[in-house]
Write a structure and sequence with these properties.
Strand order of the largest sheet: 7-6-5-8-9-10
Order of helices and strands: EHHEEHHEHHHHEHEHEHEHEEHHHH
Strand content: 5-15%
Number of strands: 10
CATH topology of the largest domain: Beta Polymerase, domain 2
Radius of gyration: 29 Å
CATH superfamily of the largest domain: Glutamyl-tRNA reductase, N-terminal domain
Oligomer: single chain
Structural class: alpha/beta
Number of helices: 16
CATH architecture of the largest domain: 2-Layer Sandwich
CATH class of the largest domain: Alpha Beta
Number of domains: 3
Shape: elongated
Length: about 425
């Protein structure tokens, strides 16, 4: 078990750092292929959201230099990136993944989107063969843990969301949302959720612009709104009081000159921009214009943090669940580590048993079926008794994280071959299921 994780998130790196590490969906497969070719990496997954970029790996024979991978892939100098990085190994990496997937490490504790984002990252990694063994087991368990947290705690109920915070900020700016026009730039889930909240609080109508016009039309239809072709964005955006933008553009699509144009057309009536894209869609210079109010994902985070104290007790219950699940997962992995040796021992003793029966069969003469069965039962019983102590010792050592030295001892004592054969536990020895 050589799990490693390195990354940045909303608590360690500002949005201007996170956007430099953003990997567009179109480049994710290529990034994963480079990751698993990196020295020491056997399996890997990359999770890239607006709030975090994380690289999770199963290292081969020790550890891999994941900082070197980040340096090579993003062409960033470590002195500028290092202060924002966190790194976890083994148990700490498992804990972090379980917490992320269960939405305990999110900007909005309990938000449901992160689970889907981790599943998408997992699917992308599996599609290119980057996840296939122990990392597969870890991620599958992480999804089960997230489900258990959501089922057994109220950590996700009545969660303060980015969307709900955006509504409160808009109310502070406009006083009332009644009759306000909303413009969605990008047709993603977060934009839709924010728009839904705004409409529920009195916003009048919705415009939707997206690079794929059909997606804009589909989303606009949900709100009885109007789809706008993306090339008409700057000619129509001044109609909106509130702009929610979340595109995949690598650079800002709204700059200071656009803000000046919008204010001129609106006769200086204020505009509110909610920028939930990483990289950001709105140039920070826009915020310097009187009448333009821009909130990016980090600004929303600060507003959310002030409203999450009432869920701390539920989060503590979720942490207890994660602690127990870590123990359970590690025990399963460690037990599986000894299975090849147990199988090799069983094969070795079975070979000896069969050879000894064959060696003395000529001296025994003709045997009745009942006598054959008796010999089989007798010799198999002897083998089981010989196996009992080493098998029990191996399993106990695995649960105590001492499997590797004990495996070596057993293999030397019984002169087992070096190549470890994978297989099921011997008959009568069952592995606990979770």
């Amino acid at each position: 078990m050589n799990f490693q994780l390195i990354g940045v998130n909303h608590t360690t790196a500002p949005v201007e750092v996170r956007e430099r590490l953003n990997i567009p969906e179109s480049r994710l497969a290529e990034a994963l292929k480079r990751l698993v070719k990196h020295p020491g990496v056997d399996e890997g997954m990359i999770l890239c959201t607006c709030n975090r970029v994380e690289v999770l790996t199963q290292a081969r024979n020790g550890s891999a230099d994941l900082r070197d991978f980040l340096h090579d892939y993003f062409e960033m100098e470590m002195p500028s990136l290092a202060p924002h990085l966190y790194e976890y190994r083994e148990r700490d990496a498992i804990r972090h993944l379980f917490r992320v997937t269960s939405s305990l490490d999110s900007m909005v504790i309990g938000e449901p989107q992160i689970l889907g984002q981790v599943k998408e990252a997992y699917a992308a990694a599996r599609a290119v063969g980057a996840v296939h063994s122990q990392l597969d087991q870890l991620l599958t368990r992480a999804f089960a843990v997230a489900k258990r947290v959501r089922t057994e705690t109220a950590v996700g109920s009545s969660a303060v969301s980015v969307a709900s915070v955006a509504v409160e900020l808009a109310k502070k700016i406009f006083g009332s949302l009644n009759g306000k026009q909303v413009y969605l730039v990008g047709a993603g889930k977060m934009s839709e959720l924010a728009a839904r909240h705004l409409m529920a609080h009195g916003a009048a109508s919705i415009f939707v612009a997206n690079r794929t016009y059909d997606r804009a039309a589909a989303l606009a239809a949900k709100f009885g709104g109007q789809a706008i072709r993306f090339e008409e964005l700057y000619q129509t955006c001044d109609r909106a009081d509130i702009v929610i933008t979340s595109t995949g553009s690598p650079r800002a699509i709204f700059r200071r000159e656009h803000g000046e144009l919008f204010l001129s057309r609106r006769k200086n009536r204020p505009m509110f921009f909610i920028d939930i894209a990483v990289p950001r869609d709105v140039d920070p210079q826009m915020n310097r214009l009187d009448g333009i109010f821009v909130y990016d994902i980090d600004d929303l985070q600060q507003a959310v943090a002030a409203n999450t104290s009432d869920r701390r007790k539920e989060a503590e219950r979720a942490e207890d669940i994660i602690d127990s699940e870590i123990e359970r997962f590690q025990a399963r992995l460690q037990t599986r580590d000894v299975v090849p040796t147990i199988v090799s021992l069983q094969d070795h003793l079975e070979t000896i048993r069969q050879a000894e029966i064959d060696r003395v069969r000529g001296r025994l003469g003709a045997l009745s079926p009942e006598q054959e069965l008796a010999i089989e039962a007798l010799t198999r019983g002897i083998v089981r008794k010989i196996m009992h102590t080493p098998v029990s010792t191996l399993k106990t050592a695995a649960r105590a994280s001492e499997a590797t030295p004990m495996i070596d001892v057993v293999r030397r004592i019984f002169n087992l071959r070096d190549e470890q054969k994978q297989g099921e536990l011997p008959s009568g020895e069952s592995e606990d299921e979770s």
